[in-house]
Amino acid sequence: METLDTVPDEDFLRLDHQICFSLHAATRAFNGVYREALKELGLTYPQYLAMLVLWEHGELPVKGIGERLRLDSGTLSPLLKRLEAAGYVERRRSSEDERSVTVRPTAEGAALKERARDVPRRIATATGLDLADIRDLRERLDALAARLDGVDPGELGACGG
Description:
By secondary structure, this protein is mostly helical. 63% of the residues lie in helices and 7% in strands.
């Protein structure tokens, strides 16, 4: 049985053996499929994700949206400004904390939800996976992300040489 200790170093250095590259390639493929599926809605994939969060939770602070999407405010703020310019969201300063900005869907943003209802099914169909396999893959990827988020940089050590 192969283990991390028994696989030759040269095998580990092959591109086609890199899990990160497989995830990168799958992400690029997903982005292409989403680009086509979201074209009629006039949304980019990151904008779609922001709208999903807002449709699910309603009004949220920008910080809360960023935490759910794993985006920093430097990336999220321009995205939200574009959604606001399109009329899909409204941004407001919090009355309790002037530094905090909340975001909520507008009536037009809520109507967009109805137009977006078939997107997840179209994407699921495009994967060719059944629902159980999609759920299993998502759970495994979530567990992988949680594990990697918890890695202590000291665990990685320095490259030899």
